[in-house]
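Need tokens for this chain, all 287 residues.
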Amino acid sequence: MRAYIPGYDLRVPGSLTEALGLLAREPGIWQPFAGGTDLMVLLEAGKLSHKRFLSLSKLADLRGIEVTSDSVILGALTTYTEIQRSSVLQSQFPLLCAAASETGSIATQNRGTLGGNIVNASPAADTPPALLVYDAEIKLISERGVHWLPYHGFHTGYKKMHLAPDELLGAIRLPRRAKPWRQYYRKVGTRKAQAISKVCFAGAAQMEAGTIGDIRIALGSVAPIVLRAGKTENVLRGAKLGPGIIARAKETLSREISPIDDIRSTAHYRTRVTQNLLEEFLSQLGR
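Here are the structure tokens for all 287 residues:
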């Protein structure tokens, strides 16, 4: 199907085969989109520079939540609302559900998709920190084939990623963990909802008699990409919680992030808030 909006060309393929064929024939010409919530903001502001768009809304192959014995696989077109309604995600992946609940308005949550949040490649996105904590994998599809890769490392710079012009993000896979993890998510913004984050923090840890057995920490809005804080994790992994190790972890994290001054906040504020969130997370682990 082909439609015209003044100044723009829109196609709505009825099948995944049709969409991939168009991207293969004219790579870089057509920009795929899902819910379109970010595109509408750019259109309203007069900043939508691309002219040819490919709507993925009718592609049933990119929808659905599949639960297996060892993982949960979410189609790229899974909406924030569908994430929140999943009992498996609520019980085993609560950070993702918390992030989905704080992404925009109810209307945005009904229309916006997990795949779109990833491919939009904003360092301030709400769901990617949770995906990094959960060691998510992503499925890339094209006429050349299908391959899975770790989400960690997918983003290479501001608005840059390992996604070829003829590829689509097809699904996100979350490995199910056998052991329980203590989990923590905080989004700090100008207001509780419908605000782009100043800092977004996701963390999970396994505790063994007051010692951190394993730990994952990821942050948004503090670097050109959503950041997995590996150096800070290394400081904490295997450590016994106490004031000294918390202070050392906060200092390490301040060197690991690279926040900027912008219209929403300052680098200094973001650094202090990030350190405070880390301390709050670690303090909760000790209770």
